[in-house]
Amino acid sequence: MVKHYPLYINGEWTKTDDEVEVLNKYTQETYAKVSKASEREVDQAVEAAEYAYRNHKLGAYERYSILKRVSELLQENKEDLARNITMEAGKPLKQARTEIDRATQTFEQSAEEAKRIHGEGVPVEAAPGSENRMAFTIKVPVGVVGAISPFNFPINLVAHKIAPALAAGNTVVLKPASKTPVSALKLAELFKEAGLPKGYFNVVVGSGSTVGNQMMKDSRISLYSFTGSAEVGLMLKQNTGLNKLVLELGNNSPVIIDKEADVEAAAENVAAKSYAFAGQVCISVQRIYVHDDVREAFQEKFIEAIGKLNIGDPNDPETDVGPMISEEEAERAESWINEAKEAGAEVVYGGERKGALLHPTILTNVTNDMKVVCEEVFAPVVNLIPFSDIKACIKEVNKSKYGLQGGIFTQNFDTAFYAAKNIEVGGLMINDSSQYRVDLMPYGGVKSSGWGKEGPKYTIEDMTEERLIVMNLKEG
């Protein structure tokens, strides 16, 4: 039986005549059907969110209690939610279970932060003529948050948008990715069970060209939180006026293997982190710069480590690499590989594709103008690039238009410190791959990789406004 999921608007389940078909990404069979929002449903969702924000304020402890309860419900429903992610996203089951654990932490951290939002005293009395005044700031919510989430973390990246927004006292209209909308609707069920008042969280499903564009043009939305391509992020920035934005965009993560690296440890780490969820992670390793002195040893160990990965059915608990999000995306990545080969690149491992399943691939003899190097491949494809001088290598790394996260493996403290000071990324991991992330840390990029930060404490800074209060006091 194919289950149908309605939209979630103003605390109610809303069925529409049009549907979005959600595929099982491994079998390509229909897994679920979801109601598709028209302009009417999007307008209703924004109206409900604005009304709730204006008329039903939640205190800090109420927000804490609801978010904490959702974190508990995530664990109580962990297996169902994880298996749903595996079905609709093709994410290997063990990675889907880890995603639920991370989302649990994201909600728990957001709940705690709801109780810590505060301003500060401002010593205006120090200015001549203001001796009888006292001042302080308070943090107030921005209002309605429009959230647009991607397919690759259909629970946890939704959590990174809505949990801090609600913790700060905002209301939310969410447009999840059309390929993975069921997770967001299951999350709405948990919010309903946790007692979130109607209108605070709304889920509308549809294409970016319709639902996304309508949200983008709605003046009632005060802040947009978007994860996706740099091209769409730029369009949002250009078309949302003076509204606030939190943008997590493209990337092509670099990792440097220095001549003083622990080569075996680096190879095992990078192999696991390059191909998790078929490379469809914003901070997946894509460009590996390997010092000439250790290039052959690293490549040998890297291939050996990749050979230990289990590839295939994501429902198998032992699977490490499953299908990509669609056959079209796998074909696109394959075409980039072939284009690189025609320009002189060599495939030294992998490259085979069957349907949506693209095997882990290593390319050598690549150049900076190849798409697999300069663009975000978002597939299980990495490039091995030799270097001889660390300073020249970092200059090459920084030629990228992206700068989300990177990594360097080295036992040399001076080299590590130089890299930390000079690699142009939002986060640099030393003796770890670019894909290291815990959900409480500030996460965001520079250049075309984004604007603003994720991580509950840091997102709340973006999702609140600072208001100054000045009191004019009489003596005596």
Number of domains: 2
Q: Please mark out the parts with pLDDT under 50 across 5 or more consecutive residues, or reply none.
A: none
At the fourth CATH level, what is the homologous superfamily of the largest domain? Aldehyde Dehydrogenase, Chain A, domain 1
**Strands ordered across the widest β-sheet:** 15-18-19-14-13-20-21
* CATH hierarchy class name of the largest domain: Alpha Beta
Query: What amount of the residues lies in strands?
Result: 15-25%
CATH architecture of the largest domain: 3-Layer(aba) Sandwich
Radius of gyration: 24 Å
Class from secondary-structure proportions: alpha/beta
State the end-to-end CA separation.
77 Å
**Which fold does the CATH topology of the largest domain refer to?**
Aldehyde Dehydrogenase, Chain A, domain 1
Determine the fraction of residues in helical runs and give it as a percent range: 25-40%
Structural features:
476 residues, alpha/beta, Aldehyde Dehydrogenase, Chain A, domain 1, Aldehyde Dehydrogenase, Chain A, domain 2, 2 domains, 7-stranded mixed beta sheet, 6-stranded mixed beta sheet, 23 strands, 22% strand
Structural commentary:
The chain is α/β, with parallel strands linked by helices and 476 residues long. It folds into two domains: 3-250 and 448-468, Aldehyde Dehydrogenase, Chain A, domain 1, CATH 3.40.605.10; 254-439, Aldehyde Dehydrogenase, Chain A, domain 2. Helix content is 38%, strand content 22%. The strands form six sheets. The protein has a seven-stranded mixed beta sheet with strand order 15-18-19-14-13-20-21, sandwiched between helices. The chain has a six-stranded mixed beta sheet with strand order 10-9-8-11-12-22, sandwiched between helices. It starts with a strand and ends with a strand.
